């Protein structure tokens, strides 16, 4: 099983296309396919903040529909899903950029994107348990004792991380560093918290290298245990990165 896990795209379509080309994927059919049957895996947070969220949704929906990729949602995916269902959500923290794009579409295209994304979300696992349990792809990570489970507490963890319920001075949720205490055998690939460079801790790696904040979009190659990145075209926002 050969997989290329893509970090948080956040609407950075150009960087996504460049990264897949660098990884050897061919776009001649309109979606990225690998000649050696490698498969893309998405760690969630496809949309929001970046310039081309709708285009990213279209490509990922088609890949998943044709069984050519793997996906599990992030917290931004969850919020967009609730927005599309008509639930009351705050159109903030990046969702406003996706909504603005969506509202520019003709009504038939809106229906197509909305129904496609709802189906994508509802048919996707909370996290990806791959290669007989040797590889786990989860948006914000996962504790060892949560692997194989799907309770509400597991859902909260994989979408938001190990949150304490408290807030940081900048208003973001305070999170415990769960990876420091991870002792499991599975390799866990995750994103959610932007880091300047891929962060390896025990048998985990955070590949959200903040493409939407002007740093890099990163992929993790399995089983090669390699990281490959492309530079972002967006302005660099230093305060968004955690040490």
Written account of the structure:
This protein has helices at residues 13-22, 53-65, 75-85, 95-103, 107-122, 152-160, and strands at 3-6, 39-42, 69-71, 128-130, 135-137, 163-167, 173-175, 187-190, 199-201, 204-206, 216-222, 226-231. It has 243 residues and is α/β, with parallel strands linked by helices. It has a single domain, classed as 4-Layer Sandwich (Purple Acid Phosphatase, chain A, domain 2), CATH 3.60.21. The strands form 3 sheets. The protein has a 5-stranded mixed β-sheet. Strands 4-5-8-10-9 form a 5-stranded mixed β-sheet, with no helix packed on it. The radius of gyration is 17 Å and the shape is globular. It comes from Metabacillus litoralis. GO terms for molecular function: phosphatase activity. InterPro entries: Ap4A_hydrolase (IPR050126), Calcineurin-like_PHP (IPR004843), Metallo-depent_PP-like (IPR029052), MPP_PrpE-like (IPR041780).
What's the quick description here?
The chain contains six helices and twelve strands.
Describe the secondary-structure layout:
Layout: E1 3-6, H1 13-22, E2 39-42, H2 53-65, E3 69-71, H3 75-85, H4 95-103, H5 107-122, E4 128-130, E5 135-137, H6 152-160, E6 163-167, E7 173-175, E8 187-190, E9 199-201, E10 204-206, E11 216-222, E12 226-231
Parallel strand pairs: 1-2, 2-3, 5-8, 8-10
Antiparallel strand pairs: 1-11, 4-5, 6-7, 9-10, 11-12
Helix pairs in contact: 2-5, 3-5
